Amino acid sequence: MADTWSTLRDPVVIAAFEGWNDAADAASEVVNHLTDTYPTDLIWELDSEDYYDFQTTRPKVEMVNGRSTLRWPTIRMSVVHMPHRDLVAISGPEPNLRWRSFGRILVSTFRACNPTMVIILGAMLTDSPHSRPLPVNASSSDNRIIAGLGIEPSQYEGPTGIVSALADECRKQRLECVSLWASVPHYVSGSPNPKATLALLGRVEDLLDEAIDLGDLPELTRAWQRGVDELADEDPDVAEYIQGLEEQQDAEQLPGSTGDALAADFQRYLRHRRTR
Description:
The chain is α/β, with parallel strands linked by helices. It has helices at residues 2-6, 26-37, 99-112, 143-149, 162-172, 194-208, 217-233, 236-252, 255-274; strands at residues 12-18, 40-45, 60-64, 67-71, 76-81, 86-93, 118-126, 136-140, 177-185. The strands form 2 sheets. It has a 7-stranded mixed β-sheet, sandwiched between helices. Strands 3-4 form a two-stranded antiparallel sheet. A hairpin with a 4-residue loop joins strand 5 and strand 6.
């Protein structure tokens, strides 16, 4: 692995975990999109015996080339080769056991590649309306990063998952870390939610300052929103509820944060123009 680390270009770690932290699979789909879009090398898999309760996170039987194969839950580490930098991508189910030792091992591995930043992704169910831009909240030990993203810092208090545990370990080991959480409308919580995935990808792009190939995600987002609109139109009570969420969000929108968000959107637009 040391040889792999020595060849990385301006590396950034990006991680997402399936399960409690990942409403509608919106966060893990960001990592899946990156590994599917760019050349990717799988370099490491965690020994799952130490970190999973297999009665809770069960192995799966899959058919591969016509043969039944058992797939055990595991954390995968891959290198994603973007045009101008490399990403160290972490993906897999949230561990069930030994979170503190898991965090120490994983963050020590991060340190070995000397990343400029660690980005950890999550998604949570909220009362955000599907018809408005889905908010992304951020937390970081460096408030300048949050300010530069043009988004509100997270004010969440309560039960947490491996995303927060890993971010805390990064802080202890003095790695610059940003956690990004997409808001998923609770009344359409099923997977996939391409709009929430796209919202997270946009913020990842802001942090990387590099255009990301979005593939068919914009079109999938438009189709998803049309589908939810059609379902809401069929039920007056649901339509009224969504209208109330829209009015509440519009009333609570802060003018300053709106300006920052527009500036971030414009910078993203310019990055994509430069890649055409």
